[in-house]
Specification:
By secondary structure, this protein is of the alpha+beta class. It is about 40% helix and about 20% strand.
Length: about 625
């Protein structure tokens, strides 16, 4: 059964049981600054778990795109991936444990054809410190469910200490069988919802986890031991508690949140022992075998790192919010994924130019029908992949030679790790990984200090002469120069204070303006930026020039370009309304119009990527 069929069967199963099928949310969270990426189907639905009414009702299901940064280092064990699809169903104060556990078992066994004899489950052990008891209700339900298939299921506690003891249902503590966005109960903030869960595991076979070279061969095996024999394929979370100042209280309604990894279900349904041999990865693996000197089973880790990381990077770049490689926030992870993949490409002797694009093409082909945005944004994906590859390939060879000089050091100093980052673009995690492979460590504390020193000195150095980028000093060019100041202010008000000027080029026909921002700007944001600039033009702002000492200018919150060097005295241009309200304030050498009225209608003609982490806008003034 291929992944498309599994996805269809899952959604149809819940649709028949009264669930509305909702679309996957963006990988980039909406209105949640605590989270860089959506990492489960639950996150977009938390407001509804807390009681807000969902427009589609109380029963929902979908397949959600997810990305987990915590799993980057886990990739390479044949089952962990950073990007995955979470098949999910939810009850918002409707059905609860009995319906959920019966349905998910029916789905797995009767619809997807999984052997019930290979299914094992975990439940919550309880925690007296927070006055929440063992989940014996779920145990009783599971016993009835298994008995219908002729399986007598006994429940066992402390399998992690004593082994499986012939059990089928296992109790585990908070770490394994409690869910909240903050993790275990003691980490949950006031007002956070959570609850116990019940996970389903599939037995891949005794030989898989306890072969001669397994690190688990002399330890007790149990379904949560991570030896490789058992793989989690689904988790039913029973969200019925909320944390209060005095402890946990029951929510006024009981919720169900189920999540099942499509890649793992496909692996089992297709009788594979690695998710990378199932159909959601196989075309990528075959392409890698074609362009490298190895077969998958000869170097599984490098194949899996490349396949997973370039798939994840393709989806993040190809998201409707289009995150590009950079050194900040989400963009940092895109860069980290791509550069780690390139390094593993070296280990597979891949010597083709633009080979990342070849893998991204396979990703687009696998998912274009399911997630149309990835095909729609395919050119943007390829462009950014090729750009990042070109930049990193130039320095990778030299950087690896530099790293090789450190082979006799037990601990790589933070100063040298910072040098690898600043000079050769090695993310610190890449340096750490290469060090681990040689049995070395990296002084991370010293690395952080070195990076802070570098940032502080960069800020000092960046006081410089602002090069306004004017091609001439004609009237139309001067108007467009003033428009760049209004544009930068509008960008920062719309997109946030992380936006800074990265360069400009202005002539009598148009302005070209580069600025720091790690993702595509949406059509609605472009309209908002345009409208804000035009509003300020119509408002008849006055352009006020002041001369002052550089230190005073910087203290006055005048924007400066960190890339330029300023003299000790500078000119500061402010766009001010008749009441003295400042819209824009920058250190600049001029020239500018005296007032904005009569400049014309501001129109953005193009928005595109300029380089990694930098966007470019082209605009005109229509008189």
């Amino acid at each position: 059964m291929d992944s498309k069929k599994i996805r269809e069967k899952f959604l149809n199963f819940y649709k028949e049981r009264g669930h509305a099928i909702i679309p996957s949310a963006s990988l980039i969270p909406e209105k949640d600054s605590t989270l860089l990426f959506v990492n489960s189907g639950m996150f977009p639905l938390v407001p509804y778990i807390l009681g807000q009414k969902h427009p589609e009702g109380k029963r929902l299901a979908n397949s959600q795109k997810c990305f987990r940064t915590d799993d980057i280092e886990e990739v390479g064990d044949m089952r962990h991936t950073t990007f995955f699809e979470m098949l999910g169903n939810w009850s918002l104060g409707d059905y609860f444990k009995k319906e959920q556990l019966n349905w998910v078992f029916e789905l797995f066994v009767d619809e997807l054809g999984l052997n019930p004899a290979n299914l094992y489950v975990s439940v919550y052990r309880g925690n007296s410190k927070i006055a929440i008891e063992k989940d014996i209700e779920s145990v009783a339900i599971w016993k009835e469910i298994f008995l219908k298939k002729g399986i007598k299921a006994s429940d066992v506690d402390f399998a992690e200490k004593n082994g499986m003891q012939g059990g089928r249902i296992f109790y585990y503590p908070d770490k394994e069988n409690w869910w909240s966005r903050a993790g275990v109960p003691e980490n949950m903030p006031i007002g956070e919802p959570g609850g116990p869960d019940s996970e389903i595991f599939y037995d891949l076979g005794k030989d898989l986890g306890h072969h001669e070279n397994s690190s688990w061969k002399d330890k007790h095996c149990h379904i949560n031991c991570d030896c490789g024999r058992f793989i989690e394929i689904g988790n039913s979370v029973f969200i019925e508690f909320v944390k209060k100042e005095k402890g946990f209280e029951k929510l006024p309604f009981q919720n169900v949140d189920f999540g099942g990894g499509l890649e793992r279900l496909a692996m089992i349904a297709q009788n594979k022992t690695s998710v990378f041999e199932a159909d959601l990865f196989l075309p990528i693996i075959k392409k890698l075998e074609e362009i490298s000197s190895f077969k998958y089973r000869e170097n599984t880790k490098s194949f899996e790192v490349i396949a997973d990381h370039l798939k994840a990077a393709s989806f993040i770049i190809g998201d409707e919010k289009g995150i590009t490689p950079s050194n900040k926030q989400q963009g940092y992870f895109v860069r980290r994924l791509i550069r780690r993949a390139i390094r593993h490409g070296k280990k597979l002797n891949i010597n083709l130019d633009s080979w990342l694009k070849l893998i991204a093409v396979e990703v687009v082909e696998i998912y274009r029908e399911i997630y149309p945005e990835i095909e729609k944004n395919s050119s943007f994906i390829y462009e950014n992949m090729e750009s990042e590859e070109r930049v990193f390939q130039k320095t990778l060879k030299k950087g690896l030679k530099e790293f090789d000089k450190l082979k006799n050091e037990n601990v790589i100093s933070g100063e040298k790790a910072a040098f690898l980052y600043q000079t050769y673009g090695f993310p610190i995690e890449l340096t750490e990984e290469m060090a681990r492979e040689r049995g070395q460590k990296v002084d991370l504390e010293e690395f952080k200090k070195e990076m802070k020193k570098h940032q502080d000195s960069s800020r000092e150095y960046s006081a410089g002469v602002f090069k306004s980028g004017l091609g001439d000093e004609g009237e139309k060019t001067i108007k467009l120069h003033t428009a760049t100041h209004l544009l930068l202010a509008a960008l920062r008000k719309t997109l946030g204070d992380e936006v800074f000027q990265e360069g400009s080029n202005i002539n009598s026909e148009r302005l070209r303006f580069d600025f720091s921002y790690g993702q595509k700007i949406s059509d609605s944001e472009i309209k908002k930026i345009e409208s804000l600039v035009n509003e300020m033009i119509e408002k008849e702002l006055f352009i006020k020039r002041e001369e002052m000492e550089l230190k005073k200018a910087l203290k006055s919150d005048a924007l400066s370009s960190f890339k330029e060097k300023y003299p000790s005295r500078v000119s500061v241009y402010s766009a001010v309304d008749k009441d003295g309200n400042v819209f824009s304030r920058e250190i600049c050498s001029g020239p500018h119009v005296e007032k904005t009225s009569g400049m014309g209608l501001f129109k953005i003609t193009k928005e595109e990527s300029s380089s990694a982490g930098v966007r470019r806008i082209k605009a005109v003034l229509i008189e």
